[in-house]
Design brief:
Layout lengths: L1 E5 L2 E3 L7 E2 L4 E2 L6 E3 L1 H16 L5 E8 L4 H10 L3 E6 L5 H15 L3 E5 L10 H9 L3 E11 L2 E8 L2 E8 L2 E5 L11 H7 L4 E5 L29 H10 L5
Parallel strand pairs: 1-6, 1-8, 6-7, 7-13, 8-12, 9-12
Antiparallel strand pairs: 2-5, 3-4, 9-10, 10-11
Helix pairs in contact: 2-5, 3-4
Length: about 250
């Protein structure tokens, strides 16, 4: 079984968000970029666990981005992935990214495609489903457990009011959520080995994004809280009528 793990290059969670060019672009100056945590902690680590259990022969990383993302890709290789592919592009919307990944996956015959449930910068949670849609493959979202037996995957995922267990034959696309695996830290041996592991750069397939960003805006942030004495019900009712806002 060959596993393809899609990873995204995202700002570190401690980054102070700023925009430039009239709020149309993210200001990347001085920002440290990392592997999207859902891609790294859950999708990649579970893929590595399957390989370590001799259920997969190869784990390949794939990323859609420019050359400045290669340091992030190398971290994924340091964790244990066998090789990596970078689709050479400045990026685009979710469909653009999904179509690039799907094109490469189809041409190279991967059995299992894993993605994180969402990226921490856009939180769209749509790339995995779009990959499956382009390839016409089964898709399981928000998976918390993945087991393999031959050509069949048993996947557990969250649904309203509980969990659901499904069985799917490969090939398959799965988006991975908390519970799928535990975070790993690269060791020195892995870091040294990552320097020489293959990282192939391929051109984008010519697909055009379907959407574009008009502008960004920072969230309003937290507001002050009014504390009301538990015995002062009249004031509470008055504030609910005059000041409370429905979000």
């Amino acid at each position: 079984m060959k596993i393809l793990v899609a990873i995204s290059n995202v700002p570190d969670t401690t980054t102070k968000i700023q925009f430039t060019d009239g709020d149309t672009k993210f200001n990347a100056a001085g920002v440290t970029f990392v592997i999207n945590p859902y891609d790294e902690w859950y999708a990649l680590v579970r893929a590595l666990e399957l390989k370590e259990a001799n259920l997969a022969e190869k784990v390949t990383l794939i990323h859609v981005g420019a050359a400045d993302s290669e340091a992030t890709i190398r971290k994924g290789l340091a964790l244990g992935a066998d090789d990596a592919v970078r689709i050479d592009s400045e990026g685009g919307d979710a469909f653009f990214v999904a179509d690039q990944i799907a094109t490469y996956a189809k041409a190279n015959g991967y059995d299992l495609i894993l993605v994180g449930k969402e990226t921490i910068n856009y939180n769209g949670s749509s790339v995995g489903a779009m990959i499956a849609g382009v390839l016409d493959l089964p898709f399981v979202s928000l998976a918390t457990k993945l087991d393999m037996a031959g050509n069949k995957a048993t996947v557990e995922h969250d649904i309203d009011g509980g969990t659901q267990v499904v069985e799917c034959e490969l090939p398959l696309v799965v988006s991975c959520a908390k519970g799928m695996a535990e975070q790993r830290i690269p060791n020195m041996r892995g870091i040294m080995a990552a320097r020489t592991k293959p990282l192939t750069v391929v051109p984008a397939n010519g697909t055009a994004p379907l959407t574009s960003i008009k502008s960004f805006a920072l969230s309003a942030g937290r507001t002050t809280v009014k504390l009301i004495d538990e015995n002062n019900i009249d004031e509470l009712v008055n504030l609910l009528h005059t000041e409370a806002k429905v979000i």
